[in-house]
Design goal:
heterodimer, A: about 350 residues, alpha+beta, Rossmann fold, OB fold (Dihydrolipoamide Acetyltransferase, E2P), 2 domains, 6-stranded mixed beta sheet, 5-stranded antiparallel beta sheet, 8 helices, B: about 230 residues, mainly alpha, MetI-like fold, 11 helices, globular
């Protein structure tokens, strides 16, 4: 199960040069600024754009191989595409929009049915409506359901939330998470929002000026100091923890870090023991101390080892990469504190985590 | 007595000519308009200009060249003669051919505008939903371009009804064959039959006004693309 994409494409002011080996399951984020080539990459995979030289293999199907002059037209590729604007057909009702793709799939190949799709995206009550009378969030959910109903082998999503305000975004994100949990369809998700990537993606490809700077599991990749990811204000790490305890008196959930005895506690509603949960720790919420201070309101204090550091996006701060029994952490501290603590690689100290954001 | 039987025969011939011309233009004009609205080829400019020529040329110029081409020594005339069809000059078929060329821009341009307004997104969406190009044409382009088709049909029909110069040049004035309303009015005036001319001219005026009224009233709001 894997996706292999090689693309070489040049316009007069832009070139795409990619050679990607991606996991054939889960959500892979194509992350980068606008103009980095992420949408072009997605359009090439869909066949909406034709890269002069390229090879696209989705599990055991080959969609393009320029060496063998093979180019499968988009309508013969088993893919679902969700555009940034929902792009519903204005002349068709919601139901007819949903059935547009479904009707063109042989019955034997249908793995997602109408009930499942409408239930999954919560749009059952909208079927008789017309696209003109829907909110942006509703339209986008219908666009996603419409793509799913073609039972694609690969779902391509081009910034499906970018055109929505933050309220609509938070309305759709839970549906996307359910998609991820309940359907076994690999997803390529184009985004320039680190927040969305942290919540949804398992794997991340970092694109810049048509090139892949990095490609790897989201936890490791976000914590890499050598990538521009660490420079942003919202730099941080994403960790997959496991629920190991719940304290009903204080409403605190204990999450065990992978492969270690370390844990973090976070205020949360009760969850089943053993459930896997993703959380984000931002670099600016981590401070460092030479000793463990029990007399502190900060709940999460972890013994860590200093790995390395780089200058932060301003000259007053540095970004320190830490290792908490195998899990990466980032801390954004002042250069002054760094010198006061005399930080150096291999040093053992305590990380105080002011905030843990549970993502999913 | 208002309209004579010759007048009615001219009206009938005109309606027949305009209907047939519009029908042919919708079939021929749609692929041309589709191509003009989508292509990035350098030929787009030249072909677009050729299609638009009847907008600016005096009808007599078009009629003159058609007369040469369709006549016994013209390349098209030679072709029809070799098929045993004789020449198309001074025949209803020739009139249809002339009208198709003469009214072409009035059908192609509204269609081209309608197709351009649709943009490429709906076609891309249809392709990712497994619709092949023909399927997409009939289930997406055609319904979305409906206002354009209505405008194109009305303008093509009305413009053919109003044709005079080309008809006179290649069709002449043969009753029941090539004598259309505009020519009939001309004949009436030549013969000093002003009362007869009034009836026909008045009918044309009312007809043209009603057609345009229908056209402009139907253009309320364009179906938006969401």
């Amino acid at each position: 199960m894997s996706i292999h994409v090689t693309l070489h494409l040049g316009y007069h002011d832009f070139a795409l040069d990619l050679d990607l080996e991606l996991p054939g399951r889960g959500v892979t984020a194509l992350y980068g600024h606008s103009g980095s080539g992420k949408t072009t990459c997605l359009r090439c995979i869909a066949g909406l754009e034709k890269a002069g030289r390229g090879r696209i293999q989705i599990n055991d199907e080959i969609w393009q191989d320029s060496q063998r002059k093979l180019f499968v037209p988009p309508h013969k590729r088993s893919l679902g595409y969700v555009f940034q604007e929902a792009s519903l057909f204005p002349h068709l009702s919601v139901q007819a929009n949903l059935e547009f793709g479904l009707r063109r799939i042989a019955k034997a190949q249908r793995r997602v049915d109408m009930n499942q799709a409408t239930e999954l995206l919560g749009i059952g009550h909208l079927l008789q409506r017309h696209p003109q009378h829907l909110s942006g969030g509703e339209r986008q959910r219908i666009g996603i359901a419409r793509a799913l109903l073609t039972s694609p082998r690969l779902l391509l999503m081009d910034e499906p939330l970018a055109a929505l305000d933050s309220k609509r975004k938070s309305e759709i994100l839970p549906y996307l998470e359910r998609l991820h949990d309940e359907l076994d369809i690999p997803v390529l998700y184009v985004s320039h929002s680190q927040d969305e990537v942290a919540r949804l993606a398992d794997h991340i490809v970092l694109l810049s000026e048509g090139q892949a700077l990095a490609s790897g599991p989201v936890g490791e990749t976000l914590a890499r100091l050598d990538l521009p990811l660490a420079q942003g204000d919202d730099a941080g790490v994403v960790v997959q923890g496991q629920v190991s305890h719940y304290d009903p008196a204080y409403q605190l959930l204990t999450l065990q870090l992978p492969g270690s005895l370390l844990n973090v506690r976070v205020a949360h509603t009760p969850l089943a023991l053993g459930k896997s949960l993703r959380f984000k720790v931002q670099a600016r919420d981590v401070s460092l101390s030479l000793q463990d201070s029990e007399h502190s309101s900060i709940l999460n204090r972890l013994p860590v080892t200093v790995r390395d550091e780089i200058p932060a996006d301003n000259t007053a701060h540095v970004l320190v990469r830490l290792d908490a029994a195998g899990s990466p952490l980032l801390a954004r501290i002042t250069r002054y504190s760094r010198d006061q603590l005399n930080l150096h690689p291999g040093q053992q100290l305590w990380a105080q985590i002011k905030a843990v954001a549970v993502l999913a | 007595m208002s309209l004579s039987s010759a007048d009615f025969s001219a009206i009938w011939l005109t309606l027949k000519l305009a209907s047939l011309t519009t029908l042919i233009l919708l079939v021929v004009g749609t692929p041309i308009a589709l191509w003009l609205s989508r292509t990035r080829s350098w030929l787009r400019g030249p072909i677009g200009a050729v299609v638009a020529l009847p907008l600016v040329l005096p009808p007599t110029v078009i009629g003159f060249y058609l007369l040469l081409a369709l006549g016994p020594n013209g390349f098209f005339g030679q072709f029809t003669q070799s098929l045993g069809l004789g020449t198309l000059t001074f025949s209803f078929a020739g009139l249809v051919l002339g009208s198709v060329i003469y009214s072409m821009p009035f059908v192609v341009q509204p269609l081209q505008n309608a197709f351009s307004a649709i943009g490429s997104r709906p076609l891309e969406v249809a392709a990712t939903l497994r619709a092949n190009p023909w399927d997409t044409f009939f289930t997406v382009i055609l319904p979305l371009a409906r206002p354009g088709f209505i405008t194109a049909s009305i303008l093509g029909f009305a413009h053919t009804v109003g044709e005079f110069g080309v008809v006179l040049m290649i069709g002449g004035n043969i009753p029941d064959k090539t004598r259309v309303v505009s020519v009939q009015i001309y004949d009436h005036v030549e013969a000093m039959e002003y009362a007869q001319a009034h009836w026909l001219a008045g009918a044309m005026l009312v007809f043209s006004f009603l057609v345009l009224l229908a056209l402009y009233s139907s253009r309320k709001t364009k179906a938006g693309w969401s």
